[in-house]
Write a structure and sequence with these properties.
The chain is α+β, with helices and mostly antiparallel strands. It has 2 domains: about 120 residues, Nucleoside Triphosphate Pyrophosphohydrolase, CATH 3.90.79; about 130 residues, Nucleoside Triphosphate Pyrophosphohydrolase. The radius of gyration is 22 Å and the shape is globular. Strands 9, 10, 11, 12, 13 and 14 form a 6-stranded mixed sheet that branches. It starts with about 25 loop residues before the first helix and ends in a 6-residue tail after the last helix. Strand 12 and strand 13 form a beta hairpin.
Length: about 300
């Protein structure tokens, strides 16, 4: 039996954080929350998040007194919102920070790819949010129109050009990507890219292009990568994917045939499998599937279990 994330919500997608976006423009409110003893701070180092190294792994938050010595002018605080009555901010640590001496031995910075499924839905969602905004800050320090420096305002959710002749306001980026499970009668299509670990197969995915609907992106990506024609394209679910700044939008679709023609640049191999064939290939190790962190694992798992993908 396959072992996958079986909840009806995807990893990172079900947090209950209240973003209270209307408060971002209230500097007095932001300052009051900064100095609230109950407020907690999330450090991000090299796109990694701080967790306990003991079992079970848990997220680690800092108090204001703990966070203050770590703050730098080049990495402003980012207001995230309120979760169960507690306010959260995020901030970046410089890459050259001696984290091994700054934090207790039982705390380590880990990649969310490795720990995402071990956190609660709220912890995972909050950490994904913090990671994504910190990445945006680090990659948008200069105005894309005039090249001047940008200044963090509105709780870190706007970066404004400091050039008085420009003052362009920049907002956080989220790149839309489609991902889908393709079936033909009793078969499911699995594909692999050459850069993936040996034996790893997953579902077709690709980025939305300007001037394109999501449904058109699904049909285009599949045609470009496999030559297959689709019908009955249906939305499934979505998942924030902070690696570094995407939203994965999941679909299911049916192919009109099994005759694929691969784009060897994007797809190295593809295989149609029935449920029984997939079980056999997993058993003998000729196929490995995506980790439970990803929406791809849920799409495959729900199909494998024989019911409607929901």
């Amino acid at each position: 039996m396959l072992s996958y994330h079986s909840k009806k919500t995807n990893v990172f997608a079900a947090g209950t954080l209240q973003r209270v976006s209307e408060s971002r423009v209230d500097e007095q409110y932001i300052q009051s929350k900064l100095h609230d003893p109950a407020t907690r701070f999330i450090p991000v180092w090299k796109n990694k998040n701080l967790v306990t190294a003991v079992d079970p792994i848990q997220s680690v938050y800092l108090s204001y007194d703990q966070a203050t010595p770590l703050l730098t002018d080049s990495a402003p605080l980012i207001f995230l919102g309120i979760l169960e009555g507690v306010t959260y901010f995020a901030f970046a640590l410089p890459d050259d920070s001696p984290v091994a001496t700054l934090f207790p031995a039982e705390q380590h910075f880990k990649d969310l790819r490795d720990i995402g499924v071990l956190l609660t839905q709220d912890e995972g969602s909050l950490y994904a949010y913090a990671r994504a905004l910190v990445h945006w800050h680090r990659t948008h320090q200069y105005c894309g129109r005039c090249g001047s420096k940008t200044l963090s305002i509105e709780g870190g959710h706007v970066l404004q050009c400091i050039n008085p002749n420009c003052v362009l306001r920049h907002f956080p980026r989220t790149d839309a990507a489609i991902i889908l499970l393709i079936t033909y009668r009793e078969h499911c299509l699995l594909v692999r890219q050459s850069i993936w670990p040996e034996g790893m197969y997953a579902t077709v995915a690709g980025f939305l292009e300007p001037g394109e609907s999501l449904e058109n992106a699904v049909a285009r990506e599949v045609m470009e990568e496999t030559g297959l024609v689709l019908e009955n394209i249906q939305y499934h679910s979505s998942q924030p994917w902070p690696f570094p700044a995407s939203i994965m939008i999941g679909f299911t679709a049916q192919s009109t045939s099994m005759d694929y023609k691969l784009d060897q640049v994007e797809i190295e191999k593809a295989v149609w499998v029935t449920r029984e064939e997939l079980a056999e290939k997993l058993q003998n190790g000729t196929i490995k599937l995506p980790p439970p962190l990803s929406i791809a694992s849920r799409l495959i798992d729900e199909w494998y279990k024989g019911g409607e993908v929901s």
